[in-house]
Amino acid sequence: MDHPVVSSLLPVVLLILVGVVTGKLKLIRQEAVRDLSNLVFLVLTQALLFRTMSSVHVQDLDFAPVSLYFAVAASLFTVMLLLQGPSSRAAVIALSGTFSNTVMIGIPLVGLAYGKDALVLLFTLISLHALVLLTFATVVLELLSAREESAQHDGPARHPLKSVGLAVRNAVVHPVPMPIIAGLLYAQTGWGLPDVVDRPLQLLGNAFGPVALVLVGVTLSNAAIGRNLKGALAISAVKTLLHPALMALAGYLAGLRGMSLTVLVVAASLPIGANVFLFSQRYQKAEDLVTASVAVSTLVALVTVTLVMYLLPLWLG
After folding, report:
1. What is the pLDDT of residues 282-294, one digit of tens each?
2. Where are the transmembrane segments (predicted)?
């Protein structure tokens, strides 16, 4: 129980299990899942993202290591998207293979295993994680959704530039980028958040992880896991094995060593973050598959993250 991987992942597994039991007992009906998803996505996520970004000072961030992390994630996302054939469903699945649970699992895991110095780099990554990956995924999803919607109508085809413009507008005026941009802009004023504002935002933000994971469990209680198990295992393998392997290779070739490379590889090895589940719910794409993948990747990570953490020191010497 004292192993950092077990200590970090077990609470996540238990929260999903609470959701499964709650769903099986019909304490939360399936009809309420969409409303709870909106609560998490449109309220709790907003508070978490704005508060996180409101204390980020761009001049203090070391962009070199984390920019490589995002380059690897974006490359893997693009390859997964192209292999499946560009579609909004494929974009959600590609996000599953690249978006890590860096907050609920990453912070306690890295803190317990590597100490305070390692957390500095992880916090830099976390401060940009949603901004870069979720905004990137949102733009892609909106572009693909616009193309699919246009193809379903028999009227004259919309001009490509107009489609791009509308997709970019929808991606910016969106529940994910807006609080990130607002928080980042506010941070540059140097004013800080008054306690009367900061405290409620903190409480709402802290509720995001537990409520989102319980919601995963509720959805899981009614999902066809058997039908999606093969796909969930494949996505979990990409997320917890291929993603960290690519990060390790790219980092090593770029000259990263020591704690910097270790933290980025461990971050890449983490299971799928709950934000991907919320994206699948919002766009109503691959919902059962993504729900199963979040749960399966969390269970698989008990083995794969331990393996990654064991092999890294041997490989780096």
Report:
1. 888 999 999 999 9
2. 6-27, 39-57, 63-83, 90-114, 120-145, 166-187, 207-225, 232-253, 259-278, 290-312
